[in-house]
Amino acid sequence: MTIEIKAVKRDVKGTGASRRLRRAGLVPGVVYGGDQAAVSIELDHKALFLQFRHEAFHASILSLNLDGKTESVLLRDYQLHPVRNTLQHIDFQRVSATEKIHVKVPFHFINEELAPGVKLSGGIISHIQTEADVSCLASELPEFIEVDLGALEAGHAVHLSEIKLPKGVEFVQLAHGDDAAVASIAKPRGGADDAEATPAA
Fold this sequence. Notes:
Elements: E1 3-9, H1 15-23, E2 26-32, E3 39-44, H2 45-52, H3 55-58, E4 62-66, E5 69-80, E6 87-94, E7 100-110, H4 116-119, E8 124-127, E9 131-137, E10 145-148, E11 157-159, E12 170-171, H5 172-175, E13 181-186, H6 192-197
């Protein structure tokens, strides 16, 4: 699924101009990267925010229609109003079809209720990481990464090296030798394991 966003070039810059844009229901932004100069843009807030609320918007290659010309971009930064929760500014980066990109991709945890550590031991699952930085070509970027917890025992964790990735995708942390834990199941306190470990009087 391709997410398309529409924008037009913004000629007037500065704090005052940005404030006027926001009052008019528009969001100031910028698109940069590649072998082209940075371009100041403006977008319709209502249409943009509808897309922005979806998880895929934050970890997908987006199709930016700028004055009728389409280019592939990634969301790189944004500012939200602390009270109104409206978009104040947004940054997009152009992506190349031949260069690898680094993007944070969310984890989707599955089969939690089937995990022996939960079902048999009454353990509690902890999501240590909810996303991870991946490296891949733009065409291979997954919207999310599935983490199957169906075989996880109490007292154990799932690490990055145990997660199956799509072809061409790698974890940046793992490439640097950091096989971090993603999820774990804590043993219940005062459970059956503790009773067995305590010798009879």
